[in-house]
Amino acid sequence: MLDETGKPEFWEAAFSEKQEMWGFDPANSAVLTKDFFIAHGVKNILIPGIGYGRNAQIFRDNDISVTGIEISATAIELARKQYGSDMIIYHGSVTDMPFEDRSYDGIFCYALIHLLDSDERQKLIRNCYNQLSPGSYMIFTTISNC
Ligand SMILES: C[S@@+](CC[C@H](N)C(=O)[O-])C[C@H]1O[C@@H](n2cnc3c(N)ncnc32)[C@H](O)[C@@H]1O
């Protein structure tokens, strides 16, 4: 995607230059969330801001199906190269959610929400909540200076 000046959007430029910049191991939060989701019978999840999918595979390895949303086309290509093409990843901004009419047992959103402004954060949380099945869970991680 291009920004308002016609240049590649920040994350598109970052993934084009640095490729799989955080390696392929899942973040510790993804490991802990996987255990929580298994314990609570979660079977399908949405990962907004999925990047190149490093946090997706640990869920898929445990029979939890994953759908992603990602703004960078290059990150989606990297995910397809590494993990195959059977995982749905919607190309677009989370500000344009929902991308489909379905609900999820769980949402795992790692290191995205702090990148958004205040209005966009509220919208992301509301849009994620609206895609949850009754009695399901959403987990966000963020960077904070508190
Ligand atoms: C700090 S990275 C974390 C990536 C991934 N969650 C991980 O941990 O490997 C933030 C991710 O969110 C994506 N992103 C940023 N703004 C977005 C937006 N408005 N809509 C969808 N994805 C976005 C970026 O392209 C990037 O993949």
From TrEMBL:
Residue ranges annotated for the Methyltransferase type domain, each copy included: 49-140
Matching SUPFAM superfamilies: S-adenosyl-L-methionine-dependent methyltransferases
Gene Ontology molecular function terms on file: S-adenosylmethionine-dependent methyltransferase activity
InterPro entries: Methyltransf_11, SAM-dependent_MTases_sf
Keywords: Methyltransferase, Transferase
GO BP: any one term: methylation
One Pfam family here: Methyltransf_11
Protein name according to UniProt: Class I SAM-dependent methyltransferase
Source species: Deminuibacter soli
